[in-house]
Design goal:
217 residues, alpha/beta, Rossmann fold, 5-stranded parallel sheet, globular
Length: 217
């Protein structure tokens, strides 16, 4: 369902990173590991269409990135992909509810999957260990751990077929990291979704179906 072949990305300083080929099926939970600079974030950004494909082939759910214009890729990402950036990209002056529901404002197809927006937001919040009283708080007033969970809720709302997350446990201690991954997997629909997480956090290895180490490429 998600395939990449001969992907490579060249930065403005001349550095080029070559990525391993990937073939991911619905129901898989994949962890990408590697040291800083090994290309984990760049790989996720290519899959998400957040940066332009330069070399190689990439396809997801029948959509071939190399043949598409930027507008079509942006639309496809909004409809099919939930992405938690390493920087989270939450809007600090908006409430938790407003931040989460941004994800369905840009996709009518994802919005159509949500019968009752508030109920679905609450379901996701509770499944990720957050309480209802957080709903109207501004995200700038939350802890890093809470902000990470809000970003995950936003990415999951509307049931995207592909969930991507970049270093989602980087600010969490051992216990919080285990709890976060357990909560995330509780929201996972193995009949419809793929999860790919990039992290240097080796505590996560045993939680995933497959681990790809970019240091070995």
């Amino acid at each position: 369902m998600l395939t990449s072949e001969n992907l490579a990305y060249k930065f403005t300083d001349g550095l080029q990173i070559k990525f391993p080929n990937l073939n991911a099926q619905v129901g898989e939970k994949i962890l990408i590991t590697g040291s800083s600079g090994s290309g984990k974030s760049t790989f996720l950004n290519l899959i998400a269409g957040a940066i332009k494909l330069q070399t190689g082939k990439l396809a997801f759910d029948g959509f071939n990135y190399e043949t598409q214009k930027n507008f079509n890729i942006d639309k496809f990402r909004a409809e099919k992909i939930g992405y938690v950036f390493q920087t989270l990209n939450l809007i600090p002056f908006l409430s938790v509810f407003e931040n989460i529901t941004l994800s369905i404002k840009f996709s009518k197809k994802r919005a159509a999957k949500v019968n009752n927006v508030k109920d679905e937001v609450m379901r996701l919040l509770l499944s990720l260990g957050l309480e209802e009283n957080i709903l109207e708080k501004k995200t700038s007033n939350l802890s890093i751990g809470q902000q990470q969970r809000v970003a995950v809720c936003r990415a999951l709302l509307g049931g995207p077929k592909l969930f991507l997350a970049d270093e989602p446990t980087s600010a969490l201690d051992d216990e919080s990291s285990k709890k976060f991954i357990k909560e995330l997997f509780q929201t996972f629909n193995k009949k419809k979704q793929i999860i790919i997480i990039a992290s240097h956090d080796l505590r996560l290895i045993n939680s995933f179906d497959r681990v790809i180490n970019f240091n070995n490429v």
